[in-house]
Amino acid sequence: LTEEEAATITSVVFLGALVGTLFLGVLGDKYGRKPIFCLTASLICIFGFATATANNFWQLALFRFLVGFGVGGAVVPFDTSAEFVPGSHRGVNLLMIEFYWVAGTLLVPVVAILTLGQSDNQQEHNNEW
Predict the structure, then answer these.
(1) pTM for this entry
(2) Where are the beta strands (DSSP E) in 18-113?
């Protein structure tokens, strides 16, 4: 992939998440959270695996968009957890979920920097004390 294509693939995942959040959140309210969460998990799984079978850039972009669409439904279990936590603990519990989400998101580039793009020789050199 060219740099532009790689950037497009990344962008379509986020675009899919945006569209998925708008649709799946409303569907969760209308048809129930459990069936929409199952749909969300299925979309992520099916199109995540389909990504590996993409024969060209446009198939890859479509599959990644649909993975993002499913990721957009990840708000559904967050809403469900809010409904089951007692009101006195709801704010703290939901805030902690968001803190861990952000912490995980911030750790992704750190782990990538530490593990990707290094040859075996560089890794051996970096592991020396």
Answers:
(1) 0.70
(2) none
